[in-house]
């Protein structure tokens, strides 16, 4: 079972700043099957990134994903007010499809 | 449009059973693997189960194995989750989600989510 660790649990930044959210896997993620999701209060998660670095349709280009093996990250180049939310990484493609515990991006 | 609508949640006593359903529309349901993901109040996302497009493969999180059963009816575009022996730890919002892929079979993650249905296990 792959365990995903997201740290810090909370990141305090201001609009216009750059955000980098890390995700570390306990073992290598095959085929780069690593996804990122955004979740806002009261809403279902939204797929942002799949295959570690490919943006899902309709996702703004300020969102980018990188990494391979066990170390991955989500970068938001310039934070917009609507980007303040919780972000989860997920290993997929083989069971169990584990999620990280999430990083909350909050206003500084 | 592409849509998943989950239903069946409610308040149930510990030890009892509940069946969740998810109706798909706007896409060819029988071509996609489908998942259930849950979120306890104030907590993060927890993957629960997956069923392959043809129903021949089913996998579960250890926390629900032996108690929950995922199933699908491709003729009715429905996904179900039968939950037995419920405990307070099963209290959560339950989401159904579609697993996308490309023509080569490369997987794209969970790209479509239902709105969630709330399950509360309490006496």
Average the pLDDT over all residues of chain A and give the rounded result: 96
User: What percentage of the residues of chain B does DSSP assign to strands (E)?
Assistant: over 45%
Helix content of chain A: under 10%
Q: How would a textbook summarize the main sheet of chain A?
A: 6 strands, mixed
How many strands, which pairing sense, and closed or not: the largest β-sheet of chain B?
A: 7 strands, mixed
Oligomeric state of the chains present here: heterodimer
Task: Describe this entry's structure for a reader.
The complex is a heterodimer of chains A (108) and B (123). With 108 residues, chain A is an all-beta fold. Chain A has no helices and ten strands. The N and C termini of chain A lie far apart (36 Å). Chain A is 0% helix and 45% strand. In chain A, strands 2-10-9-4-5-6 form a six-stranded mixed beta sheet, with no helix packed on it. A four-stranded antiparallel beta sheet of chain A has the order 1-3-8-7, with no helix packed on it. The mean pLDDT of chain A is 96. Chain A has strands at 4-5, 10-13, 19-25, 34-39, 46-50, 54-55, 63-68, 71-76, 86-91, 103-107. By secondary structure, chain B is an all-beta fold. Chain B is built from no helices and eleven strands. In chain B, the strands form two sheets. In chain B, strands 2, 4, 5, 6, 9, 10 and 11 form a seven-stranded mixed beta sheet that branches. In chain B, strand 4 and strand 5 form a beta hairpin. The radius of gyration of chain B is 14 Å and the shape is globular. The termini of chain B are far apart. The model of chain B has no long low-confidence stretch (mean pLDDT 97). Chain A binds chain B through residues 31, 33, 35, 37, 39, 44-47, 50-51, 54, 56, 86, 88, 90, 92-93, 95-102, and chain B through 35, 37, 44-47, 50, 59-62, 95, 99-100, 106-111, 113-116.
